[in-house]
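User: Hey, my collaborator sent me this sequence without any context and asked if I could get a structure. I don't really work with proteins. Can you help?
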Amino acid sequence: MVHKLNNQFEISPSNRYYGFIPPYMMGGLAREGIEEARVTIQQSRLIRRNRSKRMVDMGTFLGTAKEGKASRKVFDSKNTYEARVELVREEGGSPSTDETVNNAYNYVGQVFDYFRDVMGRNSIDNLGMDMVINVHFGEKYQNAFWDGDEIILGDGDGKIFSNFSRSLDVIAHELAHGITQFSANFKYSGQSGALHEHFSDVFGSAITQHAANQNAHDADWLIGNEIMGPELYGESIRSMSEPGTAYDNSLLGKDQQPAHMDNYYQGSADNFGVHINSGIPNKAFYLASLEIGTGKAALIWYRALQKLWPNANFNDVVKIIVETTRDLVKEDVVPQGATQKVRKAFREVGLPK
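Assistant: No problem. I've predicted the 3D structure and written it out in structure-token form, which is a compact way to encode the shape of the chain:
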């Protein structure tokens, strides 16, 4: 069985940036007459064009920066479509009277702390890269994204989506795109692009669970439920435990993520399924976490990410993750039996194929 995508109102795939809300979902909202979604799509096109003028191939400068100590700088875009408009809070500064500013500052700090304390990583690039955060971006802008240098957070329209700074897993997801960019730097198309989204969901969920002192059995495994506005309250963007069940309503349609390779989406929409097909490895991570714990699974996935390459596919990832698990068993970092449990988790979603 091959999935077909219902909505073909797509953001152009050129000059990509890593938006939290998938383009097919935003297109569906535009088709339903949601004006803020249409404006978000138009502004996203402009963002990509402007971004393309200053994009630098990561491979040309990885490893050339001097190591430093990461600091945070929060800028208020003042509802313009510009970044770094007004600096409103920086590392060690007093809290703002604006809750959005404080949320963004604090959640970015939690992400930094997690990667430093749990994974031994020094910021996004592992060299102490400063983190620039832009809030109040655009007019009711209904998305959040990592643009290769910094994170952008829209306010939402307050009806469909609320302020994107409210969600730790949104911010962790977007910053994890930066981690992947400075690690495997997956090509953002097809299976490698789905892996870009998958690893962001993995760390978004792992960091949220870590901050809440949850385990794999306590967690809801939902991605983006905190930013659903009153018209979509109770829905989510993705479910890692049950891909394909995150939402089902008249505005968004039905969640089209497959949970098994038998239902792999083979169309060209969503940049050949980067958000859609990420549900398959997401389910495998969830199953592995139930068996060995989210913390141990996230460590395996993080170590494996450092060994992967731009055009890696799902089968490549299975091989590297299983090998990494075996290495960590040898180091007595994860328990005996973890290799078999991780391998079984992938088999349950039809991988390798």
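In plain terms: Confidence is low (pLDDT under 50) at residues 1-16, 49-65. You can pass these tokens on to your collaborator as they are.
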